[in-house]
Amino acid sequence: MADSSDVIQKELAALVLEEQKIADHIREIKKNKAPKDQVESWVVKLKEAKAKVEAKKKELPTTEANTKSEFNRVAFARLMSQRFFINPSFEIYGGIAGLYDLGPPGTAVKANLLALWRQHFVLYDNMLEVDCTSVTPEPVLETSGHVAKFSDFMVKDLKTGACYRADHLLEGHLETLLEAKDLDPKLAEEYKTVMAQADAFSQKELGSYLRKYDVKAPDTKNDIGEPEPFNLMFQTQIGPTGKITGYLRPETAQGIFVNFKRLLEYNGGKLPFAAAQIGQAFRNEIAPRSGLLRVREFTLAEIEHFVNPEDKSHPKFAQIASYKLSLFPREDQITTKKTIEMTIGDAVKNGVVNNETLGTLL
User: What CA–CA distance (Å, rounded) separates 109 from 118?
Assistant: First the structure.
């Protein structure tokens, strides 16, 4: 989605929320039998709010596919909030981007989904389930590399100080350039290649491409600064002295890894086995957008499989070897940029998938 579309979508969501608040207020004052003139004044405000929403909708991309997609997304988000499936956390205090509360129906959907996940994976494959703490001491995450490397590159609007994730900004800008009429095919191919690698660029490479394509802040069109790493973990202090540094876990895998010895003993010292965990994870996203698709606190269901490094065969592989999948091999991500279809058996045989255990998990 282009940057301009992102901005319009964000503005539209805010207008829809304001319209909803006014409608809720009218229902409340009617319920409390407010004077007629007071109700009428709020009805006028509601009509004005609806007019602003409709005007903003007209600014969205005009192609049928985009218009339908954007309209449905806004309508769906509004309905989910009205029915209290989800709602921005701390809304009465202005809310915080990337944090959401689940209402009764949302909580029920989540509970059913996790029950299905547990039945399909944990119980069916006899996995070892654990439930580990969310607060993790710094040495654990230093050893895993999270303290040094669990980061995204961030850029700032040089005038307003607004922060953006650099690779997403580059991708959005190139998407806009690709929409240009009579675009040179070689240039289009260059844009697509850069977009495919954007999240893998080094700090220096990312800065170079941002300058090359003259990327600006999407909300203001101001100049942006150089990319700088931003660690996505929430830091905290453990204990009253504040001398023990910890982090809210960014994923649930670490609790499984640090308990590997115990899990192996519990499994009678036998490999292979799988361990699973369902729990909260936390990531201090630079610019959370897209509703629940990128948030700062979320429930993560994760599985780690432990196999003999000398024997990665799987007893169930023969049962699924003939299944066909659409795969996107590493080399094709840079060259053809097209998926290929092949059986899991052929994928393992040809090295597209590393081994039988991994192929079975697909």
Answer: 14
